[in-house]
Amino acid sequence: MLKKAFVARAVIATLMLAATVMSATGQDSTPPKHASEASEPGHSYRLDFTISEIEDGKKINSRQYSMSLNTSDQNEIKIGTRVPVEVKQGEIQYLDVGTSIWCRLRDRADVSWLSNDVMLNVRSDLSNFAIPDQQGSSMRPAIRQVKIDSSVIATVGKLTPVGSADDPNSKRQFQLDVMATKIK
User: Fold this and answer.
1) Residue 129: inside a domain
2) Which of 56, 105, 107, 154 could form a disulfide with 69 if both were Cys (CB 3.0 to 4.6 A apart)?
């Protein structure tokens, strides 16, 4: 009987000691809910964008653009010309004509089955001046524009299609692809 009472007191004392230690250290045993709450820092990536112009199934032009991004960051590439446009008598506004690619990157390492993937939000705007036979009778220059806004999950090291669009004035198609590479 004494032996059972001694064991019961020892168990109670051990439990009380464990509760005291846990409350004194102030540690929370629940894991973080989101990757952003984890103590592990994010990663850096290089994003290589390719804009291809395709006519009758044959690639006729291709341009490459690159940017570096850290997890949860955003960046933009902008190349072109600022064209003055008179909107009212004596009032001029500038119009951007060229290529603009904006991207936000989120690391997906918190999900085990997507551990080699990143989530990308991409906005692209491609514009240029229409060739004379597409301009019509207007004396003002016509501007052709292709916009692709997309959210994609890209596998690191593999080319991922972001979007494509047909040109309504020709048999051409514009295609935007991206390849994400983790930077060591």
Assistant:
1) yes
2) 105
User: Which residue in 116, 107, 113, 103 sits closest to 151, CA to CA?
Assistant: 103
Identify whether 9 is part of a domain: no
pLDDT band at 132 (very low <50, low <70, confident <90, very high): low
- The reply to whether 21 falls in a domain is no
Counting the structural domains of the chain, the total is 1
d(CA 57, CA 126): 20
For tokens 């692809």, the residue is: 177
The residues that bridge with 144 in the sheet, in sequence order, are 128
In a domain, 20, yes or no: no
Scan for tokens 């820092």, then name that residue: 41
Range of the domain at 127: 35-183
Tell me the pTM. Answer: 0.70
Strand ranges, E, within the chain: 44-55, 58-70, 74-88, 91-107, 117-129, 143-155, 159-166, 172-183
Instruction: Report whether pLDDT(93) > 80.
Output: yes
- Judge contact between 99 and 119, C-beta under 8 A: no
Q: What is the reported pLDDT for 39?
A: 45
Query: What is the per-residue pLDDT across 23-58, written as a single tens digit (0 to 9) for each?
Result: 444 444 444 444 444 445 678 999 999 999 999 889
